[in-house]
Amino acid sequence: MIKLLGAVLILFAGTMIGFQQAAKFAERPRQLRQLAHALQRLETEIGYGHTPLPEALERTAAATPEPLSALFRKAASGILETESMTFRDSWEQAIKSHWGTTSMRSNEQSVLIRLGSTLGISDKEDQMKHIRLALLQLKAEEDAARDDQGRYEKMWKSLGILIAVLIVILMV
Amino acid sequence: MLARVVHLLPLELKTLLERLPDQMQEQLEEIRIREGRPLEIGFRGQSRFMMADGSLRHTADGAYKPSADTCRKLLERITNYSLYAMEEELRRGFITVSGGHRIGLAGRTILDSGVVRGIRDIGAFNIRVAREVIGASTHLLPKLVDRTRKTLHSTLILAPPQQGKTTLVRDIARSVSYGLWPALETSGWQGRKVGIVDERSEIAACVRGIPTFDVGPRTDVMDACPKAEGMMMLLRSMSPEVLIADEIGRPEDGEAIREASHAGISVVATAHAYDLQDARGRPVLQRLLDEGAFTYIVELKRTVEGIMHRVVSANTIGRAATAREASAAHHRQPVDSAPVSSGRFRADDP
């Protein structure tokens, strides 16, 4: 009886781990897409609205779903609160502290940090160029992420349950 | 005065400047920040270099040098992290921040078919602390009133730069707009509608179209607008009774002032000139004076005790000038025959 219960628990846990891994692969392209939309929004605010950066970031945050929204909000509040940081530092800090809550990887993190070092300190055309460059890089990452999703999402789903079954067979 | 601009400064500059003695902080007029070069401050018309320990010296040796990082932080703070939203300001070479403080910028310019489009690689900042002297015109105003029309006479204010012209016209605008006529005989007069053409954003120091100085409740400001055009626009749209413009001197300014005075509007304008005779050497001013566009001319001089003013009536200077030409006197001489009144106000009156 107890053996049976243990086997069921192992099967359940294995399945869950598999699904969780698969979800990460499914989540990454979705968040990359949202991030691209957010940057497009930022580009519009800067290029056409001439909105000051803190406000532009707030608006972008309001139009973006979590967890990315928090990242933009943090960057905006960071610069308004501190006296000793440049925008670049505040942006980098916001990204690094919130990166754990997203499913994205270090490639897109470095794209964003690079973008942060130019935001707000050049003229309109220059700003738009930098944002477009970041968008292009994110697009490439998104394509790669979709490939990965196709390849690994299903695999992880079945792998989890199969490993759990293997462990159960070995135990009995 | 430092307290008014300290919020603009990055932490390291703020801590350094706060080491200045209180009296010095109060008299601060300019902070000049140049990347990698000595920090300079200006107060009461003098300038000193600032050492890393907060002391002031005449020579630049061992002075505190702001780093590239400090300058970047400063630029971000004065532009609200949005240099891209400041294109017009960069074309003009200065940014006006709330409180009316002007920050002059220098660096490498960007040209677009020969016309300056903006500045990039900004390496020098000049923070000019704005001071609003409420009551600066109290002594002068009674001498300029038009008793029949219960308003001001058209007046031209002459002075070299940095003598308090802008401070004075700002206070005139405020007093006239509130209806704060200082003399006893004029008490009870109502305020007048005032239009200010503020080409260099100095009089009202507008931020997004809203004056940050108190220029009175009946005052409309055309901000960052070329004077001649701005005067005509205000004439057509806002029906001002008193029109105020800073630093006239171009032929089209003369046209606009002529137009305004024909419409029965009092014009208070300032011009760069050492004195009246100097002003007559400028064709536009000479023509306006000859045509009688101004009833009074005010000369300002900054002295140790404060700012002295001298009011000359324009209908007598015409005669005085003719007499002078007849005697072929080429050297400067005071206009003795004109009824002249002088007085003074202290720049730091509360």
Task: Label this structure with key terms.
heterodimer, A: 172 residues, mainly alpha, Receptor-associated Protein, 0% strand, B: alpha/beta, Beta-Lactamase, Rossmann fold, 2 domains, eight-stranded mixed β-sheet, Spore_III_AB (chain A), Stage III sporulation protein AB (chain A), Stage III sporulation protein AA (chain B), Spore_III_AA (chain B), P-loop_NTPase (chain B)
Give a brief outline of the structure:
Chain A is mainly α and 172 residues long. Chain A has six helices and no strands. An eight-stranded mixed β-sheet of chain B has the order 14-11-15-16-10-17-18-19, sandwiched between helices.
User: Gyration radius of chain B, to the nearest Å?
Assistant: 22 Å
The CATH architecture of the largest domain in chain B would be 3-Layer(aba) Sandwich
Count structural domains of chain B: 2
In N-to-C order, the SSE pattern of chain A is HHHHHH
Using the coordinates shown, work out and report the CATH topology of chain A. Answer: Receptor-associated Protein
Largest interface: A-B, 22 and 21 residues
Mean pLDDT of chain B: 82
The helix/strand series of chain B, from N terminus to C terminus, equals HHHEEEEHHEEEEEEHEEEEHEHEHHEEHE
Give a description of the structure.
The complex is a heterodimer of chains A (172) and B (350). With 172 residues, chain A is an all-alpha fold. Chain A has one domain: Receptor-associated Protein (Up-down Bundle). Chain A is built from six helices and no strands. Chain A has helices spanning 2-47, 53-62, 68-81, 87-98, 106-116, 124-171. In chain A, helix 1 runs antiparallel to helix 6 and helix 4 (87-98) runs antiparallel to helix 5 (106-116). Chain B has 350 residues and is of the alpha/beta class. Chain B has two domains: 2-128, Beta-Lactamase (2-Layer Sandwich), CATH 3.30.450; 141-345, 3-Layer(aba) Sandwich (Rossmann fold). In chain B, 28% of the residues lie in helices and 29% in strands. Chain B is built from eleven helices and 19 strands. In chain B, the strands form four sheets. Chain B has an eight-stranded mixed β-sheet with strand order 14-11-15-16-10-17-18-19, sandwiched between helices. Chain B has a seven-stranded antiparallel β-sheet with strand order 4-3-2-1-7-6-5. In chain B, a hairpin with a 4-residue loop joins strand 17 (296-302) and strand 18. Chain B is globular, with a radius of gyration of 22 Å. Chain A binds chain B through residues 46-47, 50-54, 56, 79, 83-87, 119-124, 126-127, and chain B through 10-12, 14, 69, 72-73, 75-76, 79-85, 87, 90, 110, 118, 120. Chain A: Pfam families: Spore_III_AB. Chain A: This is Stage III sporulation protein AB.
